[in-house]
């Protein structure tokens, strides 16, 4: 077991880029800077001496924390003075707010990745249903399909997504699907 | 699991919940987590703004991972060759470090007990300037040994067969075994000092200036009990449902399972506990109360009074900032005098105007004085380790 290989870094890159990007953007409010920050965080990861034996969640936390620190460094550079009187609170002081952004970025990224993994028809229906809040009948009308098609596709999505989660009392989940 | 890991885990569960694939058990735990974390519930409410979601989704689908990876590899390759060449930046940093060490040594040779020092002022026109506080504390072990923390030569020190690790700004205790006998260690910070302590269970305690805590070398089997003797400390308590964590203060005892909060006992007999994350139970002499994040409790005589609080008050000093929002000048000067280890000479009485603002704690006193003079009707001057407050003849500048 040794340091992370290039292949492993790439795996984490592909896995975490989206969530880190959303998080970075929520902190600095600039797309290009957000991309730079994510890139820099992987630079830091390479030199951080993380091992192959470090659990994936540890690496994910590390990347998020690194993005946060780099974002603050970036924000501080933009303030020319070390002190200030100001009306609005600076994001970095509100630890709770930062975690809120981290939380939100993670939820959004997980939703994105889960939905993107679905086949086209399924994906479209699920996006309309779960993200945009349309009822089954409304979706059926919008897409010009039967309400049964909508229900079937949602069931299919459930099946496909279930493969990614640990086995639990699965039968009860169906209640949430058919509102 | 550390705090970040915990937040990420529940974010994943929430995503599952939204898609309808979360288990009953997960949903139950999620509900409890949302109750204890204001910011998570707020984030969830924001997420329901569907415009936000579809906007971000559009953006995410525009990201070309392959292109981003190629750009990354290129940058990494060029950076590593630059490092090998020994870039000028590294040389510049080394030179600065050498000078800094020289200055610090000068001060250490003087028999000075204070953590802050008088330095010449070249920019504000004061008699002199004063350096800000920095990491420093005194550890008194149960067996009576006294160790100066933060002094040069102490970094990286390991004592008691690996049970105590001292580093730059923090000391870590690693003896995880339980013990029936209570053998207390004490750590106190001088004026202008601050230090971080990590207990064997992973609990982190940040000590503000002029503060003192007492904790056992080893916790008992049933509970983790310690004391805030005076001053101010920020606690990030490691979660352990089997062993509650109890902080005894002058006014009351704070009981937690695992959470983050700040206790301020600078004024004698007044203890203010502010909760930033999790849940705590405060047990006083006659009454008890529980707190949610964003709430604080103060002891008023025999009773405990709960109020809404600004968590920045607690978090900013821990992160190295002064936080002056809503404070009056006397309150601001109180904190300033503690951090710079100075006394204040009031040659005029101050009004109760409340200000908004902040500053890094790493700046010198002169900068603060200039700022206060510019912002208020008063003039602030430094003479030795004294801050003199007089009427500002120039009037307030906007």
For the sheet with most strands of chain A, the description reads:
none
Which stretches of chain B of 5+ consecutive residues score pLDDT under 50? 86-112
Roughly how many Å apart are the termini of chain A? 49 Å
Instruction: Tell me about the largest β-sheet of chain B.
Output: 19 strands, mixed
Structural class of chain B: alpha+beta
What is the element layout, followed by pairings?
The complex is a heterodimer of chains A (179) and B (398).
Chain A: H1 6-28, H2 31-47, H3 56-78, E1 83-84, H4 95-116, H5 120-131, H6 136-143, H7 147-162, H8 174-177
Helix pairs in contact in A: 1-2, 1-3, 1-4, 2-3, 5-7, 6-7
Chain B: H1 3-19, H2 24-36, H3 38-47, H4 50-62, H5 65-85, H6 88-109, E1 118-119, E2 129-130, E3 134-135, E4 137-140, E5 146-149, E6 157-159, E7 164-167, E8 170-173, E9 184-188, E10 193-198, E11 204-207, E12 212-216, E13 224-236, E14 245-248, E15 253-256, E16 260-265, E17 272-277, E18 280-283, E19 288-291, E20 295-300, E21 303-308, H7 312-318, E22 321-323, E23 327-328, H8 329-340, E24 343-346, E25 354-355, E26 358-360, H9 365-375, E27 378-383, E28 386-391
Parallel strand pairs in B: 3-10, 8-10, 13-14, 24-28
Antiparallel strand pairs in B: 1-2, 4-5, 4-9, 6-7, 7-8, 9-12, 10-11, 11-13, 12-13, 13-16, 14-15, 15-18, 16-17, 17-20, 18-19, 20-21, 22-26, 23-25, 27-28
Explained architecture:
The complex is a heterodimer of chains A (179) and B (398). Chain A is mainly alpha-helical. Chain A has 2 domains: 1-79 and 91-109, no CATH class; 117-179, Arc Repressor Mutant, subunit A, CATH 1.10.10. Helices cover 70% and strands 1% of the residues of chain A. In chain A, helix 2 packs across helix 3 (56-78) and helix 5 (120-131) crosses helix 7. Residues 80-93 and 165-179 of chain A have low confidence and may be disordered. Chain B is of the alpha+beta class and 398 residues long. In chain B, helix 1 crosses helix 2 (24-36). Chain B starts with a helix and ends in a 7-residue tail after the last strand. Chains A and B meet through helix 1, helix 2, helix 3, strand 1 and helix 4 of A and helix 1, helix 2, helix 3, helix 4 and helix 5 of B. Strand 1 of chain A pairs antiparallel with strand 26 of chain B, so a sheet runs across the interface.
